Amino acid sequence: MSAALLEQLTLKGVTLPNRIVISPMQQYMAGRDGLARDWHFVHLAKMAAGGAGTVFTEALAIEPDARVTYHDLGVWSDDHLEGLKRLAGGIADHGAVPATQLIHAGRKASVAPPYHGFEPLTEQDAAERGEKPWPVVSASALEANPGWPMPRALTRDDIKRLLERFALCTRRVRKAGFRVLDMHGAHGYLIHSFLSPLSNQRDDEYGGDLEGRMRFALEVAEAVRSEWPSELPFFYRLSCIDDAEGGWTLDDSVLLSRALKQHDVDVIDCSSGGLGRRTTPLIIPREPGYQVPYSARIRREAEIATMAVGLIMDPQHANAIVEAGDADLIAIGREALHNPNWGVQAQVALKGLEAYESDWPKSYGWWLYRRAKSLEVSRQAKAP
User: Is 189 a catalytic residue?
Assistant: First the structure.
């Protein structure tokens, strides 16, 4: 039985084993040095062993002030290389393509982790846990939410320095052995703050009309490609809509995606929202695959490969999205936390019980196939 979700996909010089991707997911488990720990290795290796074709680490901060929290992984120093090499190697050794993402959190940096409130750090956090708030930056001096810290607007010299940082950190990612790189340009972080007219009120070449507001995102793509080999795929995560009056629109995302394609970006990672209020802690009614229409339209109109994400939990649903041409890749996030074996279970759901032995780790598949066949024979014997 064939299934589009399980087909290989070749991007540049890298062939992904299937269309299932583990999305970047912050773990808030790093120390203040931003170094990878055993937790990160176990977390990512089991996702790779669980059948995903591509496994992303969480987003790596390009400098200490670029982190969302004190507990995020970083790539701002050569000291991070050893741990990142271990993560990339562990993913590859367990059957998946190792991937990572770069981030600068901009005006949404300096935040407590979720289990301490997920709000901007205060002097109380400094007193209780030694987590002192740090100054934040953005496209313009506009707070992300009422009562949040006022960011400092980046100068042209600041922008030039950050572009150099993106290039330097890309070089480290390459040395660490990752084969796919994603740039986080969504969810109200630094790049998104330049794109949206709600957060960018600059009157220089980095503001104003759409061309000006897109300039920083495109210059980041250039900086990354200056160090990221031409044979390796480059993804770019976008909030395809701000979902706010007067904000960034899907029409804008189509135009930006076309421009990113001209800057040698291979895949648009299609998310949405998050410019101001953080929605991840909120209970919001959403339908499975609620962001797929963004992926479908960008894929069709920008003529670029896309990755769909957002409450895609059922293998048949994921397969239908790929078969319909609405996305080239399906990113699984929280569902993979619930079920790290989602990828190999999708093999069984779409190909039948024989997938246990052909696609699961041998130490699991042999046993599970025989259990499944035994149950099948038992059910048949009881049938009238």
Answer: yes
